[in-house]
Amino acid sequence: VRQPPTACAARPAEALDRLVQGYEAEVDAPRELDLRQILQAGLRMLWVAAGPAAVLLISWMMYKGIVLSLQVPLVLLLLLLWGLAEWPLAAFLASSLDQMIGTGTKGHQSLYLYPLAQLTRLLPFGVAIVLLLMGFPSLSLLAWLAGIAWSGLLTAGLWEALYGWHGLPLLGASLITVFYQILTLIGVLVLRG
Fold first, then answer.
1. Residue (of 158, 65, 163, 51) closest to 106 by Cα position
2. What angle (nearest 5°) sits at the alpha carbon of residue 23, between those of residues 148 and 6?
3. Range list of β-strands (E), the chain
């Protein structure tokens, strides 16, 4: 499972296949939840969830002049919690779908692998932050939208590598992640106002 997150950016299909194969070779797909692996995955997902929060904070500081306010830490905390909620939602949905239409033998692998597969979502957020700092909020929004599309592709690649899905199950399970992130984007746009 040890591979640089940038490997997913250069060759995502190969990197996700290696990620799944490495995990399956390392661990015999535990049926029970492993607290250590959940904490590691949670820390990775926290990094991913920090992207929208950073964009909102920078936007507030640059365009609204809000720096020191009680509103800032509360909204950022809620946005981080919202971003973290995507992880178990997507993972448990995929696991449940696998039990309904697949073999149901993968256990909680999606819960452990999803955050690692999504780490390269930070690259478009980095571009969005740079564009925001340069004074191009509209281009920053386009970078974020590209990140949402990239995330959908990463999710589809992970589910294909992990479950061997194709067609409607793959599309449906991947679009849940995209829909969730579009809701996040709309929320940030409303808060950015």
1. 163
2. 40
3. none
For residue 165, give both structure tokens: 């899905």
User: How far apart are the C-alpha atoms of 65 and 124, rounded to whole Å?
Assistant: 25
Burial of 110 (0-12, 13-18, 19+ CB in 10 A): buried
Burial class (CB in 10 A: 0-12, 13-18, 19+), 18: middle
User: Using one digit for the tens of pLDDT, what is the confidence trace for 101-159?
Assistant: 877 677 778 888 999 999 988 999 999 999 999 999 999 999 999 999 999 999 999 99
Residue the block writes with tokens 């194969």 = 21
pTM: 0.84
- Residue 154 · residue 121 · CB < 8 Å: yes
CA distance 156 to 154: 5
Instruction: Please report, as a single letter, which amino acid is at residue 142.
Output: L
The structure tokens listed for 174 are 């991947």
SS3 state at 30? coil
Contacts made by residues 94-97, CB under 8 angstroms, sequence distance 24+: 94/159, 94/162, 94/163, 94/173, 97/169, 97/172, 97/173
The string of pLDDT tens digits covering residues 8-18 is: 666 667 877 78
**Contact indicator for 132, 144 with CB cutoff of 8 Å:** no
